[in-house]
Design goal:
The protein has 139 residues and is α+β, with helices and mostly antiparallel strands. The protein has a single domain, classed as Aminopeptidase (3-Layer(aba) Sandwich). It has a six-stranded mixed sheet, sandwiched between helices. Strands 1-2 form a two-stranded antiparallel ribbon. It starts with a helix and ends with a strand.
Length: 139
């Protein structure tokens, strides 16, 4: 059994961020449990922020974009980190930027091969952070 299959056995509790009276919950769930899907948040104009549905989504993101987010499954399940995928609406299935949130802070946002977001991408992330009352402490 490889690590990918081993990690897929995780079922995580929800990670919740509060925005005023609005509560937005992101869940990573057992792949066999199709009733619990994460919310998709509207991003800025041409983007969407998506929470992974399964541990395999994290692995696939890492493979597609060329960084180590697939190794974050345990952190997400232990609720020490939340991972979000910033996607272009017209290419929703294509990796664009991966964001890690920890203790109310965006601690990293990585593009392909761990590249840092450019100025336009940072503005999208900053707008999201402001709307969710998150601090940005790193990219």
């Amino acid at each position: 059994m490889n690590d990918t299959n081993k990690e897929s056995n995780y079922t995580c509790n929800s990670v919740t961020f509060e925005e005023g009276a609005k509560i937005i919950t992101f869940k990573m769930v057992d792949p066999d449990n199709t009733k619990d899907f994460p919310q998709i948040l509207e991003g800025v104009a041409k983007n969407e922020m998506i929470a992974p549905e399964t541990p395999e989504d994290l692995v696939q993101e890492g493979n597609q974009i060329g960084h180590c987010v697939g190794s974050y499954v345990k952190n997400v399940c232990k609720q020490t980190s939340a991972i979000l995928f910033l996607r272009k609406k017209k290419q929703i299935d294509k990796s664009y930027i991966t964001i890690e949130i920890k203790d109310g802070n965006i601690v990293q946002a990585k593009c392909k091969m761990n590249a840092l977001p450019d100025e336009e991408q940072r503005k999208v992330i900053e707008n999201f952070a402001e709307s969710m009352q998150l601090n940005i402490v790193g990219y």
